[in-house]
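Quick board copy: two proteins, each given as sequence then C-alpha cells.
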Amino acid sequence: MIKCLMGGTEAMREAATLYLPKWPSEAEQDYKVRKSVATLFPAFEWTVDVLSGKPFSKPVSWAGVPKDIEALFEDIDLQGTNLHNFLYEVTHSAVSDGFCGILVEYPQASGVKSRADEKKAGLRPYWVKIGLHSLLDVRFERINGKQVISQLRFVESVVEPDPEDEFSQLCIEQVRVIEPTRWRTYREKQVANAREKEWVLHDEGVNTLGVVPFVPVYGKRKGHFKSKPPLAELAYLNVEHWQSKSDQQTILHVARVPLLFVRCFGTEDIVVGINSALSSDNENADVRYVEHSGDAIEAGRLSLQDLEDQMRQIGAELLVVKPGRMTIAQTRADNEPQTCALQRIVQAVEGAADQALSFTADWMKQPTSGSIDIFSDFGVANQAEATLQFLLDMNQEGKISDETLFEEVQRRGLVNDMLTWKAEKARIKKSPPSPDQTA
C-alpha cells in the first residue's frame, strides 16, 4: 500500500481494484473510465517528504572521525552521494516504510596484500542502503550472549555491458547472500533440461571482516528486526481519500449533466435547441431539466476536507513531544523521554550511522570511528503548533499555496474570521519588505 502511495497516481491506477474497488453491477468500461480519471491527493508522500527533510535542514556533523574515513563522506556510496544526502534517504525510508538498513560493503579484488595496495587500486569501503522491499531474510545466532547476524539475504540490481551490443547495458537482478565468513551471489538462468529458470550460483568469495556489516534502522520499532511504518494510519486514510475522491468525481460528472424530462409529447421525435421550441395540445404536457440537489456533493466535499484534516494531524503528531512529567521508573523504561516520534527516528538513524562508521573503521583498520550528529531540535509542545508548523513547511516547499495556508490558519482560529485573503494580500503588498527580502 505504501509503495503504491509513494508511486503516486500512476501506481495507484495500476493497482486498480486493490485500492479502488469496482462496485457491484458497475460495467467494466465504466470502471476503466472512472479509474483513468482518478487522481491521488499525495498526502502520504508530502508528509514523508516534509518530515524526512526536517532533520536535514542543517548539515550533518560529526566528531572524532579519522581523516581517512572523513574523506569518504563526499561519496559515501561510490555513486556520488554525500553523507548528508545518504542519511536523508535512510531517514526517508524509515519514515515511509518503517524499516531499512545500511550495509557497509568492500569491493572484491585480487592481488591486494597491503593497505598501500588498496589505496593504489582505489579500494575503500562504501555504504549501501538496503530498502525494505529488497530485504529477503535475516538469520541470527547467539554468540557470547549477544545476538548477531549469521546470514543476510537481499535482492540487488547490477549493470553490466551487453555482450551482444556495445552500446547497450543490461540491468541484472541477483540475490546476494552474506555470512560472517563468506558471500555468494545467485542469478536466475535457464538450466538445460529444465522447464523454468532456476537460481544458480554466480559468484562467491571470502568475507574477511568476520561479521555481517549490516545495521538496521527502525521507523517504529516493535522488536529485534521488527518494525512498523510510523505513518501507517495516514496511509490507510490516504487510500480512503483516494476512493472517496473518485466517488466525488463521479457524482460531480453526473450532476453536471442534467436529465431532460419530457411528458405527454407522444412518440414523435422532438428537437431541443436554442432555435427551436416545443408545443403540445395536451394539458398534461411538461418539459423540464431534472438536476441534482447538490446535498450529496456538499456532503462528499466536507468528508474529503475532514479526511485531509485528519491526515495533516497524523503527520503533525510525529512532531509533538511527549507531554507530562515522568517518574524515575518511567524514564528508565523509556530512555527517550520528552522526545517526539520523529526525534526518536533521528536517534535511530544516528545510532545506525555510528555503527556503520564502526564497520567502516574495521574495514580500514582504524582504531577509532567517531560519531555522527543529526539536527533534532524540532519538537513542538502541542498538536496545534505541530499542524501549523507542518502547513508552513508544506507552503515553503511549494506543496500548498499562500492562500491555502491563510485559510488553514484562519480555520484554526489564529486569524480573525472577518479577514479575507484578497484583503490580506493587498495589505501584504503595502507592507514594507522584511529584512530578509531587502538583503
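And the next:
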Amino acid sequence: MPAMRTAARPATTRCLVVLLAWVGILAAITTIAQRYGFSTLAVDRAAIIHALAGDGLYAYRSPLTHLGTALPPPALFVVSPAVFLPLPLAGWLTALAGVAALGLSMIALVSPVARRYGRRPWPVVLAAGALALTIEPVRAALGRGTLDLLVFGLITADIVALRRGAWALSRAAWWPGRPASSPPRGRTPGDLLRRGWATGAWAGVGVGLATALAVTPAFFIVYLAVTRQWRAALTATGTALTAAFAAWLVSPGETVAWLGEVLWRIDRTGPVEAISNQSLAGVLARIYDSATTPVLLWLSFSLLLIAVGLIRARAAHADGDEIAAFTLVGLTVAIVGPVTDTHELIWILPAVLILIDAAARRRVTSPRRPPGRRPGLAFALAAGMTYLLFVLAPMWSLPGPFSANCYALALILLVNALPWRPGVAPAFPINRWLGRVSSAARRRPATADLGGGGSSAAGGPHLARRAGPATNRPGGPLPAATIPPPRDPGR
C-alpha cells in the first residue's frame, strides 16, 4: 500500500500541474482577447466575406482602420473557416492553436537545454512557456488572431528535423552495422512514418509552409542555400510553390492580384510610420517625420543588416548551433521588413533562451573565478533586460524617440551581438567536423572554459574529435574537458 501511494503521487502532481496550466492559459487568453479584440482576424474574416459576396478580396477596407487583409492566398484558406464561426469563437480557436504551436516549440527548444544541465525538462518547459505568454509579441499574436505562432512552430519543426537528420547520419557513421534503434525497413505507411521521423526527412516542409503563409520566411530558404543544405532548401521551395499553385487553382484571380499588386506594396500590412512598425523602415520614417521611408537609405542599411545576419548565421551553423543560426535569420527578417508589427517579433523568444544558456554555460564551465568577476553575468543581464523590454512594451506608454524605436534597436543589437554555443545543435553529421580540423585545432589543448559563441568553425571539429558522437547528440551533455576555448561572438 505505501508503494502504491508513492506511485500515485507523481500522477496526481502531474494532473494538478496540467490543470493549473490550462487554467492559466485560459485566463491569459481571456485577458489578452479583451485587450486586442482579435482585430487582425476580424479584418481577414470580413475580407473573405466581402470576396464571397462577389467583390474583390484585396479591395476590402475596414471602416475603422481603413486597412485590408495582407495575407497571401494560401494563408486565407487557413483563415477561411472563421467565416462560418462567430468572431469570438474563431479567435479563441486561433489562439488555442497558437498556444499549442508555442508549447511544442518550447518543448523542442527548451528541453535539450534543461537536460544538458541535469534538470527535469517539463518544469523548465512550463516555466518558459508561462514567461513566453507575458511578452508583447506573443500577446499581440494571440490577441489579434494572427498566424505568427503557427509560422514560428513550423520553422521550429524544421530545426528539429535538421538535428534529427544530423544525428541519424552521425550514428550511422560511428556505429558499425545497422543500429538496433533504427526504424524498420518495411514499406508500410507506419514504417515510412517512423523512418521519416527518425531521419528528419521532413526538413524543409515547415519553412515551405511558413513561406506560403507569411512570405517573409523565404529568407530561411536563402539561409538554407547559403549554408548548402540543399535538400532542405529544395524541399522548402517545392512546398511553397506547391501551396501557391494550389491557391492559384482554387482562386486564380486573387492569386494574380496578390502577386501582381499586393505583394509589392510596402504599406500593405499597415502604415510605415506607425509606432507599431518596429522595422528599420519604420525607424527611418519616424526620424524623417514622413508617411513613408526614404527608400534608398532603407535599402542600403537593409542590405548591410542582411549581410551581417546571414554571415553570422552561417558561422553559427558552422559551429554547430542551428538554433542560433535560425534565430539570427528570424531577427534579420524582422528588422529589414518594410512593416514589422509587434506580433511578428516571435524570434525574440529563442534569442532570450540563447542568452540564458550562454550565461549558464559560462558560469558552469569556468574552472577558476577571479575575485570580483562573475562569468556569464553580461549574458544574464542582456537576457533579463531583453525580456523586460519585451514585457513592458515602452513604446505604448513612454514618450520619446528611444521608446518609440526600442524594439527595432534591440533587434539590431541582437543581430550584431547574439552569441552562439558551439556543438549544441548541429545540423550536419559530426564526421563532417573531423575532416575540417585545422592544425591549430589539433595542437590546442582541451579547456574547461566555454565562450558564449564564436564565428570560427575550429571549435566544432575540436569538440567532435575529442568527444565523439555522444556529446553532439541533440540535448546531450557536454563534458567540461572537451569544451572549446572561449571566443568573441562578434568576430
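Board note added afterward: Residues 110 and 353 are 8 Å apart (CA to CA).
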